[in-house]
Specification:
Blueprint lengths: L1 H13 L4 H17 L1 H11 L8 E3 L2 E3 L3 E3 L20 E7 L12 E4 L4 E4 L8 H9 L7 E6 L10 H17 L5 E5 L14 H11 L8 E5 L5 H13 L4 E4 L22 E4 L3 H15 L4 E5 L5 H9 L4 E4 L1 H5 L4 H13 L5
Parallel strand pairs: 3-4, 3-13, 4-7, 7-8, 8-9, 9-10, 10-12, 12-13
Antiparallel strand pairs: 1-2, 5-6, 6-11
Helix pairs in contact: 2-3, 5-6, 6-7, 8-9, 9-11
This protein binds flavin mononucleotide.
Length: 354
């Protein structure tokens, strides 16, 4: 009943409005609902996971379900109290940057409905690590896993490589100093409107991870990988990630290839930003499978990109994912999707949470 209601009634109404306005309204509403016991109970009743045990322990962290909200939905850490009621076992807050970042000029998001894709041009719009860390530090303790995605500030003053590296390090150091974040993800694959060198290049990535390795803490660290490189290029990056002792990788980020849209004619006239949703699915699953095959159990792998159904998620688990992350599926398919994935996973892989 709920999926039908979402797809036939709620979604058509929501999709009439500007996507960023809807996104911001949902985050604000979610924050309010999360503050009220009745609100949380209502959400649990509608979307809470009540199937067989779907808990899993990954790198010492116990997730109630293997479904994690990907970075980019809750930049500022406002939804910690509602997401566990919607079938999620964890979330990645952010990406968060050392300096507050106003984001790119609008439009920052557009929906390509027939292609089941979202054009994302947010430019890391977040309040900065000081504000976000204070908010996360003040949250009531819970068994919900809260990771933080760390990126370079999208500002002209940190365009240079050295400044960029120090900027990432300042963000991570602030989180560690304030004892915030159950795990960290280094977002090496996000465009910076102000230009500057990308860290999706082995030599630069090596210098970045060497510096971040000097920040002492005992939490798992993952790299958020680009999905556009060829397998050989991807492998060179994965080797650097392994060399530096990171626990694993999230595979992966947005797709930059607009001609991989199901309906390329839907693409906006000026191609700005990456694509979330369906155009990410094949590339990310293929890289994930090849990584598992090439590296065995060396890495924790988090499958992310184009999960629009429980079957899509199961494809990633069968390809070797320990966890999955999503955003677009929650929007296109509906908020019942996380529970569906948890149930499908529990039936095939359950009993790993002890
Ligand atoms: C609105 C939006 C903002 C995003 N911002 C970030 C970000 O700040 N950092 C990041 O690592 N990924 C970001 N992403 C990428 C997602 O984490 C994810 O990799 C991508 O959307 C593919 O997953 P999906 O198909 O389930 O949406 C963003 C995605 C969306 C839709």
């Amino acid at each position: 009943m709920l999926p039908f209601l979402y797809q036939r009634v709620v979604r058509p109404v929501l999709f009439r409005f500007d996507p960023e306005m809807i996104h911001d309204s949902f985050v604000a509403l979610g924050e309010q609902v999360g503050r009220r016991r009745a609100g949380r109970a209502l959400l649990s009743g509608m979307y809470g996971y009540r199937g067989p045990d779907a808990s899993v322990t990954v790198d010492g962290l116990r997730y109630r379900t293997p479904v994690v909200l990907a970075a980019g939905f809750d930049y500022n850490g406002r939804l910690l109290r509602v997401l566990p009621r919607m079938g999620f076992g964890g979330m990645e807050v952010g990406s968060v940057t050392a300096l507050p970042t106003p984001g790119n000029a609008p439009p920052r998001m557009s929906r390509l409905v027939r292609s089941r894709a979202i054009v994302v041009n947010k430019g890391l719009m977040n309040q900065g690590v000081e504000v976000v860390a204070e908010r996360l530090g003040g949250a009531p303790p819970s068994d919900f896993v809260v990771g933080v995605s760390v990126a370079r500030s999208n500002r002209a003053e940190v365009v240079g490589e050295e400044e960029g590296i120090e900027d990432y390090a300042a963000c991570l150091e602030h989180l560690v100093r304030n004892d915030v974040g159950d795990f960290y993800t280094v977002n090496i694959s996000c465009p910076n409107v102000h230009g500057g060198e990308s860290f999706s290049e082995p030599a630069r990535l090596r210098r970045l991870l060497t510096r971040l390795g000097q920040v002492e803490h005992d939490r798992p660290v993952y790299a958020k990988m680009p999905i556009n490189p060829s397998w050989d290029e991807f492998r060179r990056l994965a080797d650097v990630v392994a060399e530096h002792g990171l626990h694993g990788m999230v595979i992966g980020n947005l797709n930059k290839e607009y001609d991989e849209l199901l309906h390329p004619e839907e693409a906006p006239a000026s191609y700005q930003g990456g694509l979330a949703g369906l155009p990410c699915r094949e590339r990310s699953t293929e890289l994930l499978a090849r990584t598992r095959e090439a590296y065995g159990d060396r890495f924790t792998l988090v499958g992310c990109g184009g999960i629009l159904s429980a079957d899509d998620a199961m494809e990633k688990f069968r390809a070797g994912a320990n966890l999955v992350q999503l955003i677009s599926g929650m929007i296109f398919t509906g908020p019942h999707l996380m529970g569906r994935i948890a149930g499908a996973w529990a039936r095939e892989f359950g009993g790993q949470g002890a």
